Amino acid sequence: MKKVLGIIAVLSGFIALFLVFAAGPSYRNGWLELGQAFTLLRWGAIIGIASVPLIIGYALWRKPHGRLTSALAISAVVGLFSFYLPFSQWQTAKSVPPIHDISTDLDNPPEFVAVLPLRKDAPNPPGYAGEETAKQQREAYPNIQPLIVDKPPEAVFDAALSAVSNQGWALAGAEVPSRIEATDTTLWFGFKDDIVIRIQPHEDGSRVDVRSKSRLGKSDVGANAQRIKVFMEALQENL
Fold first, then answer.
1. What's the topology of domain 101-238?
2. pTM here?
């Protein structure tokens, strides 16, 4: 019995880590439905946080030495990490509005064209989500604004296309020098978010607007706003 408890204590953190990290690939590869993958993630977090008192209790009871002590310590750290990863995502989701369509132009959001066939089966329609979404964006992400530069549209287009490539996005279509459309696939779950970049003449330069929208889910956990922010910074560096 003592040996079995020791094995359980050592393995608990690693089991939690396996469940947490298996959730994403299981959904991405079609082995599990999204709800099932989230259940796997939730159980990983539960086992992860439960592993800590289990390991501490076993250590206080058995007072292990040598390699077993190291294994228990590593398992506890892994268990904490397995809990922290989904918990931090949950905390982030609570701190941002439940929207998934972000645009630098809320009055005339750039429209999707090239990615429309890719979104035909997506739960979230390609049209802009509406004024309620715009209101929530203004409150949560006031810094998501158009970029005004003193470069002609042709130069901005080339710089934007380079930034898209450097971000690792899959190019869906481009119209020189006014439009670029692409898709970003998240690493863990493989969620797909579509991006449209609109470049227009503006006074002696150009105005760049970007819109990023998730194909799935009510909340993007802040991912689309962050994506636009990172892209704009990369574009300015290219210019």
1. Alpha-D-Glucose-1,6-Bisphosphate; Chain A, domain 4 (3.30.530)
2. 0.88
